[in-house]
Design brief:
heterodimer; A: about 100 residues; 3 helices; about 35% helix; B: about 475 residues; Amidase signature (AS) enzymes; 11-stranded mixed beta sheet; 15 helices; about 40% helix
Chain lengths: ~100, ~475
């Protein structure tokens, strides 16, 4: 399985990850190498095998629908890149 | 005093031979003296001395625990309130954690004294500690060699006596592999045994925190304080925590040890095979019975892991978007530019590779062929272990194909680096507990023995490791220049 530079750019966009132009080819090579490793999986018949998501096959616990957290907005926003009057600031999204 | 075990240090603190403040200061001085190892990202001198003072008061009031006053290094993946928690990444270089990981809280409550935050591969992705934004850690046994990874700083700090013990995390071998390459004892507990709350996530279905120490006896003490159910971690398992030190001295007569033939074939390096042979013979002398077992799906562990781990990583790391915390690029043009450039500028190459592969494996049209397939294979691997562990009590194997390799040697070939994880990653896929203990040297560099047990059999593993450490001295060896 080999990926082209074009594929890498598409995947990088899906991941919202900027990649330097001069690095795209080397990512294409490394990623293709990783996908090659995975071809071994295709040789195994897994019909009827149940996918394993949790090693102990546990399911996510549910908890009572009660408030357990207190307001820590000030504390959390103290480490934010940009805030104003309690709001996180990002570049304008709507024209 | 920095050569003493946790039990010896606890005794010294109680008898008044030295105080916790003196002990912390001695380690802090050593950390500075051996800065060349690059083991620490942040040294928390003020926090340490304050905690040491409190520990001294607690000891003199008579309500101390074994870990009270014991200097510990925390892997920089565990959130520590008010202290930089970088996870080895430029992304979190400015991140002061607003809360403590449960593991950190528990160790603080036990009275352990945090000396600082230790270096690691960026977001725990790497097997050599070379992907850290803060530079490679050096192996105390040979400063031109890697300490292993991702918990490389933890392993180097313990081996060089820059902490009495440390915490680590293990997603594909990140406790056991550096423990082996640095000649220390490391334990990856059963998945769900130690809380993941506040432990920055890499691959959530595989990540597990554990102790890294100089002996099995010390590992039992540290695990005791780390383990337990946590309401705040939805994958935490609600099972009572046994007394991990209680079984240490049980005799091993009748113990059944399985050796997977797939790990002891022609591919095994002959020097490593010789080290393991001697170690296994030692177990024979201790009364163990050795049996060959077969685990035909082990060869699929690397492919399955390198789908599952990157897939989960691509999802987990999507939270680093330059909006709420962490790195943000200069002058973003629009929101997409803010996301892509913040992430592009702050993540290193290995992290990017894994995000890209994971994104690809989870993308429309490929999910079934990669992620779902890998999860099915994960079950086959887990069933291989169940079958083997129904025939024997524990499985033993190498930890690594070779001893520590040179810094820079494998950085250009990520696939070669991944293939070196062959002996450790199947354990994570199955969620089993496993240990790495020092078992000898090859050309002056430490080699490890892996002991894999059944779910929640940590006490048994510690017993098996401890009995070996009663009749061997490998775990007592000190690297040159660090005596």
């Amino acid at each position: 399985m080999s990926l082209t530079a074009d594929d890498v750019n598409k995947i990088a966009y899906l991941a919202r990850l900027a990649i330097d132009k001069e690095d795209v080819e080397s990512y294409a090579k490394d990623l293709s190498g990783m996908l090659d490793l995975m071809t071994l999986m295709g040789e195994v018949d897994t019909t009827g095998v149940k996918p394993m998501a949790h090693p102990l096959d546990q399911v996510q616990r549910l908890r009572a629908d009660a408030v357990t957290e207190h307001d820590q907005r000030g504390l959390f926003q103290a480490i934010a890149p940009q805030v104003e009057t309690g709001l996180y600031l990002v570049p304008k999204v709507i024209e | 005093m920095y050569n003493k075990t946790i039990t010896e240090l606890a005794k010294g603190l109680r008898s008044g031979e030295f105080s916790s403040v003196e002990l912390a200061q001695a380690f802090l001085d050593r950390i500075k003296q051996h800065g060349v190892l690059n083991a620490y990202i942040t040294i928390t001198e003020g926090v340490a001395l304050q905690a040491a003072k409190a520990a001294d008061a607690r000891i003199s009031s008579g309500n101390a625990e074994l870990l009270t006053g014991i200097p510990i290094a925390q892997k920089d993946i565990f959130c520590t309130q008010g202290v930089k928690t970088s996870c080895g990444s430029k992304m979190l270089d400015n991140f002061i954690a607003p809360y403590n990981a449960t593991v950190v809280d528990k160790l603080n409550q036990a009275g352990a004294v945090m000396l600082g935050k230790v270096n690691m591969d960026e977001f725990a992705m790497g097997s050599s500690n070379e992907t850290s934004y803060y530079g490679a850690v050096k192996n105390p046994w040979d400063t031109n060699a890697v300490p292993g990874g991702s918990s490389g700083g933890s392993a180097a700090a313990v081996a060089a006596r820059l902490a009495a013990c440390s915490t680590g995390t293990d997603t594909g071998g990140s406790i056991r592999q550096p423990a082996a390459l640095c000649g220390i004892t490391g334990l990856k507990p059963t998945y769900g045994r130690v809380s993941r709350y506040g432990m920055i996530a890499y691959a959530s279905s595989l990540d597990q925190g554990g102790p890294m120490t100089r002996s099995a006896e010390d590992a039992a003490i540290l695990l005791q304080a780390m383990a337990g159910f946590d309401e705040k971690d939805s994958t935490s398992v609600n099972q009572p925590v046994p007394d991990y030190s209680a079984e240490l001295n049980n005799p091993l007569a009748g113990l059944k040890i399985g050796l997977p033939k797939e790990f002891f074939g022609a591919d095994l390096n002959s020097d490593m095979a010789a080290v393991l042979d001697i170690a296994i013979n030692e177990y024979r002398r201790l009364g163990a019975e050795i049996k060959e077992v077969s685990m035909p799906n082990l060869k699929l562990a690397i492919p399955a892991y390198y789908v599952i781990a990157p897939a989960e990583c691509s999802s987990n790391l999507s939270r680093f978007d330059g909006v709420r915390f962490g790195y943000r690029c200069e002058n973003p043009q629009d929101l997409t530019d803010l996301y892509t450039r913040s992430r592009g500028e702050a993540f290193g190459k290995e992290v990017k590779r894994r995000i890209l592969v994971g994104t690809y494996a989870l993308s429309a049209g490929y999910y079934d062929a990669y992620y779902l397939k890998a999860q099915k294979i994960r079950r086959l691997i887990s069933e291989d272990f169940s079958k083997a562990l129904s025939e024997v009590d524990v499985i033993m194997s190498p930890v690594t194909p070779t001893t520590a390799f040179g810094i820079g040697e494998k950085m250009d070939d990520p696939i070669q680096m991944y293939l070196a994880d062959i002996y450790t990653i199947a354990v994570n896929l199955a969620g089993l507990p496993a240990m790495s203990i020092p078992a000898g040297f090859i050309n002056g560099l430490p080699a490890g023995l892996q002991i894999i047990g059944n779910y929640f059999q940590e006490a048994r593993l510690l017993n098996i490791a401890h009995q070996y450490q009663q009749v061997t001295d490998w775990h007592k060896a000190i690297p040159n220049g660090f005596e």
